[in-house]
Amino acid sequence: MTPDQMRDASLLELFSLEAEAQTQVLSAGLLALERDPTQADHLESCMRAAHSLKGAARIVGVDAGVSVAHVMEDCLVSAQERRLVLRAEHIDALLQGTDLLTRIATPGNSVSAEDIEAYVGLLGHLLDPSATPAPAPTPTVMAPTIEIPAEPVRSEAPEPMSMEPLEPTARKKRTTEGGERVLRVTAGRLNSLLDLSSKSLVETQRLKPWLATMQRIRRQQSNGLRALEDLNVHLKDHALSLQAQEALNDARRLLAETQQMLAQKTAELDEFAWQASQRAQVLYDTALACRMRPFADVLAGQARMVRDLGRSLGKQVRLEIEGEKTQVDRDVLEKLEAPLTHLLRNAVDHGIEMPEQRVLAGKPAEGLIRLRASHQAGLLVLELADDGAGVDLERVRRTIVERGLSPEQTAASLSEEELLTFLFLPGFSLRDKVTEVSGRGVGLDAVQHMVRQLRGAVVLEQTAGAGSRFHLEVPLTLSVVRSLVVEVGGEAYAFPLAHIERMCDLAPQDIVQVEGRQHFWHEGRHVGLVAATQLLNRPVTPNNGQALKVVMIREREVIYGVAVERFIGERTLVVLPLDERLGKVQDISAGALLDDGSVVLIVDVEDLLRSVDKLLDTGRLERIARQNEAQVPRKRILVVDDSLTVRELERKLLLNRGYDVAVAVDGMDGWNALRSEDFDLLITDIDMPRMDGIELVSLLRRDNRLQSLPVMVVSYKDREEDRRRGLDAGADYYLAKASFHDDALLDAVVELIGGARA
Question: Any idea which residues bear 4-aspartylphosphate here (predicted)?
C-alpha cells in the first residue's frame, strides 16, 4: 500500500468516526424538530452537522456522502430561512438521509448510485414539488415484525391488554445444554453467597502470614536444638551429676520431638492453606454472576422505535427517559429488556390515541410516554407512564363476561383495581383481531411473569382519559463490580470497568494544550487530561519524566483521561457500602477488600466527572508538568475547525512538517486558546458554531497582544466576495478547501512564518 493509500485509509476511518458523531446529532435534532420545526438551535445544529459531513466527505472523496449531505443541508437551510416549514414527510426524509449517511460511512457497506439518486430526487421533490416527481424511496418507517423467539427475554411484541405466556415452553427449559438442572436462587441469597465467598477468600489469604510465622518458629526451634547440642559437647569435659545429665537428655529429646511435630504440622498447614485458597477462589468465581451496567443499555434506539412505530400507526408519539445512568445488575437488565419493550410498544398501540382524538379531548396532538428509573431502598424502581386514554374499564368488564371469566353480576361489582388485574391473565386481550402489533394475547402476563422471576412486583394504575402508569419494583444487586485497581498518592482506588474506555501509557511530550487545558490525542479526538491526585485530594508524586499511567473514563459522550501513579491490576470486588453516617463521600461510591485484606475505595465515576466540570468552570484544574520537552523550540500553530476530519488532516500535515500544533473545535474555543497560550500562526475555518472565523479574526486584530499574529483562512467558500470578506477582516492568507492539497497548505504556512524551528 502506498503512503497516499495509507493516508486515504486513515482519513476514511476518521470520516467514519465523524459520521457516527454527526448522525447522532442529526437524529436527536430531527426528533426535536418534529415536535417544533421552528427551534432555531436544533435547526442550526442539524444544518452544521450536515455541512460538516459534506465537507468531510469531500475531503476524503466520498461523493455519495457529499450528495446526500448537500441536499439535506439545502433542506435545513431552507427551514432556517423560513422558506420551508418542516413537516412530517420532511422529517421522515431527513431521517432516511441520516440512515443513508450512516451506511455510506460504515466500512464494508455498499450503497448503489440508484439509491443515492432516488434519495436526492425525493428530497429535491419535497423542496420543490413542481419539479419532476421523485422515484419511490425505500420507506424508513416500517411496522416492526413480531415473532416469539427461543428465549423468554426476547419475546414477541408487548401488549398491555394481552396475556399469554411469554414462551409456552419456558418451564420445560430447566436444564443447560450439557443436561444439568437449573435452579432459581433469590437475589437476596445470591447477595449473601457473594458476600460470604468474598470474605472467605480474604480470610484464606490471612493464612499466609500465619504460615510464614510458623516457618520462622521452626527455624528458631532448629537453631535452639543445635545450640543445645553444642552445649552438650562442651559439657562432656565436665563432671555432671546424674540428674543434670538426665535433664539435658530430656531437653534434647523434647526439642527433637517438637521439631519433628512442628515440621509435620507446618507442612499440613501449608497444604491446607493452598487447598483452602483454591477452593475459596473457585467458590468466589462461581458465585460471581452479576456485573453492574447502566440502565441505558436496554434503551438503545427506543426513542426512535417509539417514534417509528407511532408513525406506522398514524400517531405522533415522543418518549422521554429519566435515570439512564442508574446502575442495575446485568441479569436484571437482561430480564427487563423484553418487558420494557412490551410496555413501550403497547403504550404506543393501546395507550396513545390518534391525533384527531387527542385534539378533540383537549390534548396536544403528540402523545408523551415517560420512562423513569431510580434506586429506592435497595430496589430498582421503574415508572412508565403515558398521557393516553387510559383503560376502557367497561370494555374490560364485557370481555371478562364474554370469555366466561366471571358472571355478569360479579363483573359489574368489580372495582377498578380488580378489573385491572384481569389484564395480567394469560391470553387476555382487548383486541378483536390480530395485527402486526397487537391481538395475540401476549403482553402484560409476560411482563408480570418476568418481574415475578426477579421476585419483584408490577402495578398498573390508570386515569380515564388521562393515561396509564406502570410501577415496577425489582431487587437491585449491588454486590460485585469488575474494576481496575490503581494507586493514587500511595493508596488504592478502583475504577469500575464499565466506565473505562481504555488504559494507556502517555509520554509527557504527547500532552498538548488546548483552550488552556491539557489534552492528548486518542483515535482522532483530543481527550482532556486531569490528575487523580487533585480529584482525590492525594499528595502529588513526581513522575521524573516517565510515561504517565492514564485511565480513560467515559460516561456516555463525556470522556477524560485520569493520570494515576500505578496500575495494580484488574479485580472483581465485592462492594461494601460505606457507613450511612458518612453521608455521600465525594467521588467515592463504596469500599471493598483486596485479596490481602487491604481496603480499596471504589470511585464514583459520575461524581468524579462532575468534580472535573466544577474544576473546569472555576479554572482550578491543575496542570500536569511535561518533562523532557524538546530543547529546540518549535513554532506553534493553532488550527480552528469544527470538522474533525479537516482538523485531523491539517494537524497531521503540520506535525509531519515539524510544527507544534494545537487544535480548537470552534471560534470560541480558539479565542480562549489564543488568550491563554502563545502561537506563531492561526489557521481557521469560517463557518463554525458559537463564533465563526470572521468574528475570531476581528477580535484578534483588535487585541493589542495578538493583532500582529499571522492568520490563514481555510474555507469551502471560494467566491471572490467570500475571499474579500476574509481578507478585509484581517486574514493574511485565504485558501479554498475546494482546491486544497498538501503542498498548498504547507507552502502557505512556510510563506507566512517560515520553517518549523525557531
Answer: 685
